[in-house]
Write a structure and sequence with these properties.
The protein is of the alpha/beta class and about 260 residues long. The chain is built from eight helices and seven strands, in the order E-H-E-H-E-H-E-H-E-H-E-H-H-H-E. Helix 5 links the parallel strand 5 and strand 6. The chain starts with 8 loop residues before the first strand and ends in an 8-residue tail after the last strand.
Length: about 260
């Protein structure tokens, strides 16, 4: 299936590992030009080399913390200037720490909102002028299933990310007619470094325990490439009438409608 991404210029934050890396890989396979960003220069270089070796294409990198709004804006502007346009922005960042509501004071909540909401808004706002200029654009904000189905032990994640759905929906109406879409990707338990790093013993047995404890009907956690497949479709020309949505990829765990 041709997703209509050949020649598009894409920026993927959090692209050095996990879901971000998997989305960058899919975009390269579809013929897009890709730049990835992340906080660790070493991991970025490793990811760049892996992606370049697989795709036979150069991959741009930028070391930055997404919470640094000016650095994020410079990355977007520089990428658009280098390639003549910017069409796709994937806003992906780490999540707040786990814990119930009472485990954090006001400063903890402020930090969570800065990372899990405000940082995404900053990157999207930096990209929008370029998408408008190109006349075609896709915005994908990577959040968590907690945006749709609250999990008490991840209180900050659900609270801070809830506003992203409202932001995406509101932005869609502000953008109005045209070919720029805005969607939120909400993955559930996924075999990323964040999850795997907290396991003890055999990885397969550990992820099976996580799936059982979480009540995932499919009996396992997601692979990053499975989440990326859903995200890449939302970024494609094929998804031109899908906008303002929250796409949950959780193996059926959530019972919410």
């Amino acid at each position: 299936m041709d997703l209509g991404l050949d020649g598009k210029v894409a920026l993927v934050s959090g692209g050095s590992a996990g879901i971000g890396f998997a989305i960058a890989r899919e975009l390269l396979r579809e013929g897009a030009t890709v730049s990835i960003a992340g906080r660790d220069p070493g991991r970025l270089a490793e990811a760049r080399d892996r992606l370049a070796a697989e795709s036979g294409t150069e991959v741009g990198t930028r070391a930055l913390d997404l919470r640094d709004t000016e650095a994020a804006r410079a990355w977007v502007d520089d990428t658009a200037a280098e390639h003549g346009a910017a069409h796709i922005v994937v806003s992906n960042a780490g999540g707040p720490p786990a814990g119930p509501t009472g485990a954090f004071g006001p400063d903890g909540y402020r930090a969570a909102f800065d990372l899990a909401m405000v940082a995404h808004v900053g990157l999207v706002q930096a990209a929008l002028p370029h998408l408008r200029e190109a006349g075609w654009g896709r915005v994908l904000i990577v959040a968590s299933e907690t945006i749709r189905d609250l999990i008490p032990k991840y209180a900050l994640s659900g609270i801070a990310r809830a506003g992203l759905a409202a932001y995406a929906k509101t932005l869609v109406h502000e953008l109005g007619p045209g070919d720029i879409t805005v969607n939120v990707l909400a993955p559930g338990y996924t075999a990323t470094d964040a999850l795997l790093g907290g396991l003890e013993g055999d990885v397969e047995a550990g992820t099976a325990r996580v799936a059982a404890e979480a009540g995932i009907p499919l009996g396992r956690v997601a692979r990053p490439e499975e989440v990326a497949a859903a995200g890449t479709f939302l970024l494609s020309a094929r998804a031109s009438f899908v906008t303002g949505t929250v796409q949950v990829v959780d193996g059926g765990r959530s019972l919410g409608m």
